[in-house]
Amino acid sequence: MTRVAVITIAHGRHEHWALQEAALARSERRPDERILVTMDDPALASAARERGDVRVVETGGDERGLPLARARNLGARAALEAGADVLVLLDVDCLPAPALVDAYARAAEAPETRESLLSGPVTYLDPPPPEGYDLGALPSLDRPHPARPAPAPGEVELGGSHDLFWSLSFALRAELWHRIGGFHEGYVGYGGEDTDFAWRARELGIPMAWIGGARAFHQHHPIEDPPRRHLDAILRNGALFRDRWGTWPMRGWLDAFAQEGLVERTASGDYRRRQQR
């Protein structure tokens, strides 16, 4: 029997974590291993341990930002040590549909998708009503993000651009995780590590596959666009990506920063923080 681990990394967002747990409890197939990696959040780690059915891994913070890449790698390592055959990584803000775990597990076993990097459609939810989200009503809110493939439940869309990969919700077999080598831990803070992971998969000839049954619903929270508070991390991680792949990622954000006068282009085409005069 294939063993499936669901891995979540988190800092704060305690209510989002609790509702994600409630959604997982409604799964048609429960994960064999539930892993939570907390980043500099001992209160969340303690609360999760009290449940008794969650394997908790703790990692400290980093003065440069949250160690997202390292946290995912630690979660995957814990899952693999527990004997997981399939890794499902789910953002703490995402509520899994009841079919998500089973859909990913079946896709990881199916001949046409077992060698692929698996992603499912994600719906961004509006702010919740005063009483909170009703898990039973989520299917009626299903409106997947239009910028990414969204096959219907039960359908699969093969191939497509690795630039569309996102780390909100994805899965792969343990063997593919080993081949890719996990996330590059040089990325610290916001941005770049998920595109680097996808490009490494592409370099290895690992295609994308979009799994219609693996639907998730992203809980609403305020966002900043462009994400100015992450400017330094985006510049640092973008430069690392350029060194590794020869081009800058996150160009939409970087160009928006440039329009706001926060960054400037150099003669070589790089981006740097604009000196304040």
Automatic annotation (TrEMBL):
Superkingdom per UniProt:
Bacteria
Answer whether the UniProt record assigns the keyword Cell wall biogenesis/degradation to this protein: no
Specify the Galactosyltransferase C-terminal domain's residue ranges: 169-211
Enumerate the UniProt keywords alphabetically: Glycosyltransferase, Transferase
- Note whether Secreted occurs among the keywords: no
- Record pathway: Cell wall biogenesis; cell wall polysaccharide biosynthesis
Annotated GO molecular function terms are: glycosyltransferase activity
For this protein, the parts annotated as crossing the membrane are none
Q: Which family does it belong to?
A: Belongs to the glycosyltransferase 2 family.
Q: What is this protein called?
A: Galactosyltransferase C-terminal domain-containing protein
Organism, by scientific name, is Agrococcus pavilionensis RW1
- Organism classification, top ranks? Bacteria, Bacillati, Actinomycetota, Actinomycetes, Micrococcales
